[in-house]
Amino acid sequence: MSSHAREARRAGRRIGLVPTMGALHAGHLALVTEARRRADLVVMSVFVNPLQFGPSEDFARYPRDLARDTAEARAGGVDVLWAPSLEGMYPEPPQVTVLPGAAGGRLEGAVRPGHFAGVLTVVLKLFGIVAPDVAVFGRKDFQQAVLVRRMVRDLNLPVDIVVAPTVREPDGLALSSRNAFLDPPSRRAAAGLSRALAAGAAAYRAGERSAAAIAECARRVLEGAGTLAVDYVTCVGPDDVEPLETVDECSVLVLAARVGGTRLIDNVVLGPGLEGDVRVAG
Ligand code: AMP
To answer: Ligand 1 atom 22: the closest Cα is on which residue?
Structure first.
């Protein structure tokens, strides 16, 4: 991968990277479209990164189907589909890893200790191997995108980070590889996540500015949606994932819930500012 990328760079081609864990869906392919607009060679990595899974999480059962992913990636316009092996990525357990800092300990980081150290470490390795000019991430994993941008800034990495909008099912459920685990009752309950976000955003539009009130409004909808266990529902700042008392149009309503045995996350920007556009930073 490294020498292929080097050759492309030498030929003057801009390289775009779309990191994924496979089980591709239209959300991943929307990232490819964004990468295509900004790069000449679009590389998609498929790697289920053990470092970002806790001991009791779903690493073993995470969906893997490289043949299907290859067909999807080809149809989606990927130039290079790169699926490194576990031994290739981690010939031995890494000694040096990335510390995500305070923002990495909140929300997902609080529920999944070590998760973002695993994410940032693998992303930095992918950047090291591919050396992309631009890398595209989904806003669906809002906190991840914040931390990747922060890593790029703090470590002066020569890559532009693009964060692309969330692709959803018709009923609002954010596409996710983990949706495949949902049985029909869980699938119905899962639609409550985006309904809860919509209720919070509607409260904001109606003039509510208290973070607690907006979160409470979303929580009520979520808890009414069926059998699910709420991990968190809260409003945070867009650049630091800091909990807020008062929100503005850039604030992000984030939530996580367990439906059946499956953990789902979603978020929405409260104001009209960001949803729908692509935010570039780096
Ligand atoms: P994953 O394979 O779940 O690790 O996701 C790989 C990339 O796709 C990450 O940058 C995710 O944020 C992004 N992604 C996942 N689901 C969606 C979605 N529904 N819409 C847009 N991007 C997504």
So the answer is: 138
- Taking alpha carbons only, the member of 271, 170, 133 closest to residue 214 is 271
Residue nearest to ligand 1 atom 13, measured at CA: 138
Q: Where are the beta strands (DSSP E) in 47-199?
A: 80-82, 134-138, 160-164
Q: Is the CB of 118 under 6 A from ligand 1?
A: no
pLDDT (0 to 100) of residue 62: 93
Q: How far is the CA of 113 from the centre of ligand 1 (A)?
A: 20
CA separation for the pair 15, 230 (Å, rounded)? 40
pTM of the model: 0.95
User: Please, are residues 42 and 35 in contact by the beta-carbon 8 Å criterion?
Assistant: yes
Active site residue 115: no
> Any idea which residue has 């020498």 for tokens?
3
Which residue reads 């999944």 in tokens? 112
CB atoms within 10 A of CB 230: 17
Whole-angstrom CA distances from 143 to 19, 89, 149, 254, 266 are 16, 24, 10, 9, 10
Q: What is the pLDDT of residue 273?
A: 57
Res. 279: pLDDT tops 60:
no
Using pLDDT thresholds of 50, 70 and 90, give the confidence band for residue 228.
confident
pLDDT score at 227: 78
Q: What is the mean pLDDT of residues 33-42?
A: 98
Query: DSSP assignment, residue 210?
Result: B
Q: What ligand 1 atom has the least distance to the C-alpha of 178?
A: 3
Q: Which atom of ligand 1 is nearest to the CA of 177?
A: 3
Contact 34, 164 (CB under 8 A): yes
